[in-house]
Structures are given as C-alpha cells and as structure tokens.
Write a structure and sequence with these properties.
- The structure is a single chain.
- By secondary structure, this protein is an all-alpha fold.
- The protein has 12 helices and no strands.
- The longest helix is centred in the first third of the chain and has 39 residues.
Amino acid sequence: MTEYLQSTFLGPELGWLVATLALILLIALPLMLAVAMIIYVDRKIIAAVALRRGPNVVGPFGLLQSFADGLKVFLQETIIPSGANKGLFLLAPIITFTVALLAWAVIPFSEEMVLANINIGVLYILAISSLGVYGVVISGWASNSKYPFFSAMRAAAQMISYEVSIGFILISVVLFAGTFNLNEIIKAQEGHIFGAVSAYGLNPLLFPMAVMFLISSMAETARAPFDLTEAESELVAGYQTEYSSMSFALFWLGEYANILLMCALNVILFWGGWLPPVDWEPLYAVPGIIWLFLKMFMIFFIFSWAWATVPRYRYDQLMRLGWKVFLPISIFWVFLVSGYVMIDKFGWPL
C-alpha cells in the first residue's frame, strides 16, 4: 500500500503519511470493535461460571449489549468534582486510552501484517506498557479524593513490582531467540521441544516463564485476582470512583485494550504467535491471523476464568508474590537460559 500511494500524485512523503494513517486506522478501528465484543465475551464466560445467562436481550444473543452500554455512557453528563484538578482529571483517561493503543504498532498479526516491524519490538512494548500507570496515578491524584488516591498508590506499587519480573522474563525470551524483533521471536519457537516433536510454542525450557508471564500479565493489567486498584469492598471503584460519561468509558476501553495486548504478548512470546500449533502442512492453509486470534482467545478465557473463580489477593500477598517469588525465579531463569544458549552455541566446556 505504501509503495503504491507513493507512486501516485501524492508523492513519496504525502503518500507515506496517508498510507501510515490508513494502516493505523486499520488496526485501531477493529481493535475498538474487538474491545466491545471481548467485554461481551467476558461477561458471558463469568455468567456461565456462575450459572447465569449473562447479556441476552439487546440484539441476537445479546451481542449488541456492549454497544448499548457505550451509547448510554456517551449520553451521560460529564461530572467533574469541584475540588479536582480539571485539566489533569480529563487528561488521565486520555493517557490510559492512548498508551493502550500505541503498543499495538509492533504486534505482528501475521508474518507480513505488522504496522512497524522494528528490531527493538520487545523494548518498545516494555517502554509503552510502563507508561500506562501514569493515567491511573494522575486520575487518582487529580480527583482530590481519598479512595482514588489510595488506588493510585496501589497501582503504582503493583505495576512497578510486576514490571520488574516481566522484564527478567522478557530477557529470558530474548536470550533464547537471540533477537528483540517480535516476528523473529515467533520464528525462533519452531520445533523447540528439544527435537522430540516438531511443534510451535511448547518450549519446556521457557514453559515456567510462560506461566509466570501469564500471572504477571493479570497483575500488570490489574485483573482479578489482582484487582487491588479497584477493590470494591475497600476503595469503591478505585481511581475511577469520581469519573462518569466518556471519561469513564475511556478507562474501560484502555483497560480491555491492555488485556488484549497482554493476551497477544503471551501468544507471541511463548505460544508460537501466528504459527499453527503443530508443524503439519494442512494447518498452514489457515491464515496466520486466525491462529493468532484463536490462541489469544484461549489466553483471554484463562483471564476470565480466573476472575470468576479465584478470590482477590490481599495486598501483602500480592507484593510478596511479585518480589519474593517471581523476581528470584525470573532472575535464576535468566542464568539458566543464558547457560543453555552458551552450551548450545559453543558446546560443553572442557
């Protein structure tokens, strides 16, 4: 598309700009639709676990419920507390929503379908995801209310704690793949069951890291059972307590976009991404983007399943898991993977 538009009357510079904007919309608009539908799926899964029906009135099978909720929120009045910092109060949900979209620029939906196939994709994801806490902290402080402020402090401590272990987990993946490029990381997973089975995404060496990354993803996105930032019994609605109308909706859109991002990262880093689950020729007839979405749905099902069944952690348990369990194990695994890579490359030392 870029080369075609550059060859038209638009010229090289304007053609590149128009093509890039078109590709951004091609990712952002379906992502917004996916967020609306994934909220519906989330509610259906939780309802099924609780032996309820879930949304089933608005549209066929309740499929339009998320759109009805969005319209309701859009028509509500935006209320800003009198003691709030108005500018920062309105800026916080915009930051959360924008940062959630920025990370999708480097996500490969297939081998060719990626907006920016950069060689530092992992570093870009790590940098962008760390910015998400700013929206939460700013909203908690700007609300000028105790419950949102406590929630903001919890969010900052929680996200910092689990980003440390996520960072070391990513180092293990990068050491094994030998690259920061997400597409190359997917290709590096080919046939790695120690040569026994030619399959994608089941690496015994990195499987413990896959489990830790999945749990850390729940904590990073403040998803149950780690939703201490929104603990209803303690903090009402946490950092969102004073928000209404579209500012509240932007938090929700950003939250679910982050959840989908973490599902995609779980699949890309550990489960073969857009590759089929087994190296069998007929499976390659299925487009890679379909395999990616199917694997993402399985990870999201685990997210919803945990929300519906696992009780919320206490805050001290949350911190202990991050600092005293995940961090030491992830650091040890960096040494383990680096040792394996060195032996695999240079052989056993004499």
